[in-house]
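Holo prediction. Input below; ligand is NDP.
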Amino acid sequence: MAGDPISRHFTRPMHSLPRRIAILGSTGSIGRSTLEVVRHSRGQFAVVALTAHRSCDELCQQAREFGPRYVVVTDDEQARTFNWSGLPRGTELLTGQAAVERVVQSPHIDVVVAAVVGSAGLTGTWAALDAGKTVALANKETLVMAGPLVTQLAATRGAKILPVDSEHSAVFQLLDRSPGHTPRDMTAVRRIILTASGGPFRDRTRSEMEQATVADALAHPTWQMGRKITIDSATMMNKALEIIEARWLFDLPPGQIDVVIHPQSIVHSLVEFNDGSVLAQLSPPDMKLPIQYALTWPDRIDSPARRLDLSQALRLDFEPPDEDRFPALGLGREVAALGGTAGAVLNAANEAAVASFLAGELSFMEIVSACRAVLDSHSFSPAPTLDELLAVDRWARQEISRWICA
Ligand code: NDP
Ligand code: MG
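Structure of the complex:
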């Protein structure tokens, strides 16, 4: 049996429905879709905790609707200045990152949805796994930064990591690791093929991409998402991060992880087996399906996600990615092969570069060039501790600022 964080505990019984959940980042795109799943499920989930960084008003409204035991705001200043008189009586307000780490360890929580954006999501996810919780993981940056340490922690604590990212959910569904089923023998898997929409610049020339504005890059053709991941999709850094995410999640060498452009975003990924058989998972682009599957696994229940309508003509295209216009893909493969500190450096450099692009300090094509420069200038360490990873994260962000000023 493969040594990845999903299959390792496939025989452990999952808490039956209803499940008690915490949503870290409930005011974001994934957080709101998760609440839509909860709304639709009519009693299959109890919301125990919700967290936000600064969106106090929306968090308060969510608390009124879902009545959680805790709400946590990580930005202390925002929490202090907001008028909380509308918070329901039974809900306790906590502030600061340390409060998130305490709350996720509550015995009243079964599943933690990790839907914070960026490396800020690492410590909450870490605390949840440390307490042996099941984590429905949207925050891919956690695995990109610290894949080996995070999967090791899950193994030691008997915690499960269930993917929310649609491509990884597709692979997870195709490998069919439900309890009671024999898990796939990973030696029979020849490769996994992650699909990518190609983003808004799939058909643009390099010189058009060099002139791209923030509005152009935010105009994703198939997915509605938060700003950071939308820019990552335009550079295809998102797919680079997903190669690294898959490498740790499924314990597969990067040589067995391929990428194909599929503009319709209906096939979410494919698995090719030794005998040449290729399985695919299909559904319209709607995150509510992979979110719900991570929450109900190994069960399936009716979902609010859009359904595939095969009574209409349906066209599915596939083409190889253009590595020249999208050099992020090469970076992703390289970092997946290197491991060590490389993932934390790439992730932090990219977060800082995307923030700089959104602030008008970097051009679109410079996002990946800056990441390449920072990655090349870092002194690689093969087996870092968590503290070392947090230190290289800070270093890489400073290096992006220096690259911009140079
Ligand atoms: P959003 O930007 O829409 O939401 C981010 C959430 O994180 C918000 O609740 C935000 O709170 C909170 N947050 C932001 N900064 C911090 C911080 N420093 N500390 C604590 N909380 C913080 O992001 P998405 O929902 O789009 O993405 C979330 C994660 O899911 C990302 O890792 C992304 O890669 C992944 N993902 C997203 C997909 C999508 O369809 N959106 C698809 C696949 C993966 P506030 O509102 O208060 O700022
Ligand atoms: Mg994805």
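Residues 165-167, 242 surround magnesium ion (ligand 2) (CB under 6 Å). That is the main takeaway for now.
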